[in-house]
Amino acid sequence: MYTPLRPSTTQDLPIRHMTYRVRTWGQPRADVPPLVLLHGWMDVGASYQFVVDALSEAFFTGRHIIAPDWRGFGHSMPPSPSDSYSFADYLGDLDALLDHYAPQGQMVDLVGHSMGGNVVMLYAGVRPARIRRVINLEGFGLPATQPAQAPERMAKWLDELKALHSGAIELKTYDSVQAVAARLQKTNHRLSADKALWLAGEWAAPNAQGRWAILGDAAHKILNPQLFRLDETLAHYAAITAPVLAVEATADSLGQWWKDRYSLAQYHERLKAVPHCRIAQLDDAGHMLHHDQPQRVAQMIEDFCQPEPTRSTD
Predict the structure, then answer these.
(1) How wide is the angle at C-alpha 93 spanned by C-alphas 110 and 70, nearest 5°?
(2) Which residues contact 80 (CB under 8 A, 6 or more apart)?
């Protein structure tokens, strides 16, 4: 099994009427912005361990690194069962997390993967004065929608709510941690066996029946009842003042997911709304590029987020 080179510390932090599990490395420094690593859908903060281990000693020593489990994922479970998650809640949670870890106007560097990448792009437009750098790892957004789609989408959401409560929508369980690791490798053939086994122990846990269950809420499988509004997203992008690095894998996971509904070229067109944005590609990597190429992702983070004296937003 993979052994972390830089073990983390975990904290359970009260955030917005729930307990957030946050993984940290290093110690806070007033003169260097924290590095906040935000995971994607059906993932956990521990997913960044391989990248943290690949950072140079000089960069790592001077940084406080923070990786929460988003609400409804990992060990950040709401106190009572939920059957619906609003995307806006992730921005609210991030705002509260930064109030705790970067108080008094300290700026931060944000890295987000997939869903987390979508969050950081929106948040950087909402709170531009708090953000020094943004790295978006395959946070592509969604295909554009039209208002006429709203009734059908809401009806589908209602139907899926009923399916969830009937038990028809659930997360699969596994008979062992090795089976979980095999599932991770099936999804990502570049993930080595030792890393898959370590990650499986962070991604899942035995339930009351002794089965290994994914640490996530099945309600996340229900679609968002709200349409993806492209014009609003572009307004957020245009309000970003921090430099943005948009990293994508050459495997083109976007094209594999959406086919002709949404293309990489359309994503690149959206990024033109960001005032200061650079696109970088990563070879020999799929959507989980921080697992596939942790050394190269770590180098990108170091190159783009070299520390400099921070300024207060006060």
Answers:
(1) 75
(2) none
Nearby residues of 159 by Cβ (< 8 Å), 6 or more positions away: none
Q: Count CB neighbours of 35 within 10 A.
A: 26
Q: Give the span between the Cα atoms of 105 and 311, in whole angstroms.
A: 8
Q: What is the pLDDT along the chain (314 residues), one digit of tens a residue?
A: 999 999 999 999 999 999 999 999 999 988 899 999 999 999 999 999 999 999 999 999 989 999 999 999 999 998 888 898 999 999 999 999 999 999 988 999 999 999 999 999 999 999 999 999 999 999 999 999 999 999 999 999 999 999 999 999 999 999 999 999 999 999 999 999 999 999 999 999 999 999 999 999 999 999 999 999 999 999 999 999 999 999 999 999 999 999 989 999 999 999 999 999 999 999 999 999 999 999 999 999 999 998 664 444 44
DSSP three-state, residue 229? coil
Give start and end residues of each alpha helix (H) in the chain: 49-54, 57-61, 87-101, 115-126, 150-166, 177-187, 193-203, 230-238, 253-258, 264-271, 289-292, 294-304
For tokens 């994922």, the residue is: 73
Residue 173: strand, helix, or coil: strand
Angle at 178 between CA 165 and CA 41, to 5 degrees: 45
Cβ atoms 142, 254 nearer than 8 A: no
- pTM higher than 0.85: yes
